Amino acid sequence: MVVIPAFAGMTSKRLKMKRVYAAEHGLMTERIKDILEEEGIDCMIKNMNLSGGVGQIPPIECWPEVWVMADKDYDHAKTIVKDLLKVSTEYRTSWICKCGEKIEGQFTDCWNCGIARG
Ligand SMILES: [Zn+2]
Hints:
The protein is of the alpha+beta class. The protein has a single domain (8-91), classed as Alpha-Beta Plaits. Helices cover 33% and strands 14% of the residues. It has three helices and five strands, in the order H-E-H-E-E-H-E-E. It has a three-stranded antiparallel beta sheet, with helices on one face. Strands 4-5 form a two-stranded antiparallel sheet. Zinc ion binds at residues 97, 99, 101, 110, 112-113, 115.
């Protein structure tokens, strides 16, 4: 992981880097970086060191960001990220428990009977 906060703007221009993703939580950012690298796309994470401790939500300009190093990879990377986010959004749709309760998507367990989402 390369972090160059002080010169980030200048470096970005020279290398024609492009940001493909930013998120409040570093985990998704790491995952996206791994997947892009598997696809053979050079990328890096910025702001990872600013993401704060447990319970702290950093301001949006400090969110961890995934940048691709080469212009030519940008569209490809964007498509991959879009697909990934679509999947995670679908997972957040509400679900019906075996007991018949409708549960909001952000919950993984039924509030009524305690059974985990199957
Ligand atoms: Zn239930």
